[in-house]
Amino acid sequence: MATAPVEPPRRLVTSLGSDPAAPVRAWLAALPSAVHERLDAWGLTLERVDAPGGRSSLVALVRQQDGTPATLKFPVPGRLHAREAAVLRLWDGWGAVRLLQADEASGALLLERLQGSVSLRSLPEARALLEAAGTVRRLWVAPAADHGFETLSDRTEEAVEALRTAGALTPTAAPLVEQAAELRRALPSSATEEYVLHGAFRQGKVLAGERAPWLAVGPVPVVGERAYDLAALATDRFEDLAAGSGAAAATRRRVAKLAESLEVDRDRLRDWTRYRAVAAGVRETASGDRRHGELLLEFATWL
């Protein structure tokens, strides 16, 4: 039923082009055929492939047989995206985009259509944080005994290794990297709560919708404490804080306000925020964005 051509967006190709893994290269090469196969199987009409799109998935705007708009998503295959369909089913549209269909073999997801160009980042910072807090609160649910999601403890050693590998390319950040590695090891084992978390929550992951004003997308589900989810939100738009006067004090106020509004332990939120800022900072620096990376590392010191 598709007539428009399917070509992976340049941003996706560039993002994955340096990955030497043969499965990733094979996935990229097979994407056009995989998209057309899903369009035919689900009776969809392709409008266009979203561009510039993301760095870890192909997104296409489609119409269902009754004309209802929807979004077809093909995440990069791998462990991080393996449970996206499962967590979307768990939330069933409560605070998050609604899953319409999923194909386990290809990883394809058919989702309700949201306004992809309108995220919380379009709002003033104070309003964006308020809406983000209200959205993420809906996503935090108690895990079932047989939930099947990874836990923060499961990911600890891998996260520490990735942090130190990237940090080795930034020798001046060695003290921060070591402190962040110790936090990453200690925090999961000392947590006193467990929730199903979005795992990658930030303002850009909350889009405008019709069924609800704001809905979360792009989860990388993990089970752990709520402070982990809030930590990425605490670092959001950190450039705005850096551009103002009293950046360190403003950063600490933001963390305190988020902790209070969602009844999360402030010290644990501060520690998770420090870890996630350092991890992101050394990763950005290692990938070549030294200015952005160094600013993230400076942000970590403000906490």
Automatic annotation (TrEMBL):
- This protein is called what? Kinase
Q: Where is the signal peptide, in residue numbers?
A: none
What keywords were assigned to this record?
Kinase, Transferase
Tell me the domain of life. Bacteria
Q: Does the keyword tRNA-binding apply?
A: no
Keyword Transcription regulation belongs to the record? no
Q: Which GO terms describe its molecular function?
A: kinase activity; phosphotransferase activity, alcohol group as acceptor
* GO BP annotations listed: secondary metabolic process
